[in-house]
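YM 10:42: LemA family protein sequence, as discussed on the call
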Amino acid sequence: MNEAAIVMLLVIGVPFLLVGVFVLANYNRLVRVRQHLRESWSDISVEMKRRYDLIPNLVETVKGYAAHEQSVFEEIAKLRSQAMRNEGSAASQAVDERALGIGVGKLLAVAEAYPDLKADTHFLALQQELTNTEDRIAAARRFFNGNVRELNQLCRAFPTNLIASMFGFEESSYFELDDDAQRTAPSIQI
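YM 10:58: structure's back
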């Protein structure tokens, strides 16, 4: 192979090699971000499952003091069931979680009318655990939304948008709550 052929091979081959390395590096970056997104959603799911398990115990405790508040108990059971069955997008899950949060707020409002219930150690422990769980959901939601933002930026920005569309990466939806009252955990008044 003469010197001119080697130079010609380098002139043609090096740009293809650089493009290949660029595509490979950004593909791996997109895969990594998508995997982080899935893991962070899994963290949210674990904490939501924990909350779903706490709610029936909280309802049963309140029922012991306020059995005539049947409509609130039935509404919470319906909202909890609806939220647990949701397997849609994060935005869709946020709608059901928002409704469930409103229902739990109504339950806690009922509890406010019963001083003996508010002093019950079991109720206080459940309420504290619910508050801790809400805090963990909020932290997991922030991490998830950070991963969504990174993936969406990669899917929109040039030239990574070309690689994302070439390999089927899609933007994801945020897990957001609409009103500020739902962004805070239920308060405990001892």
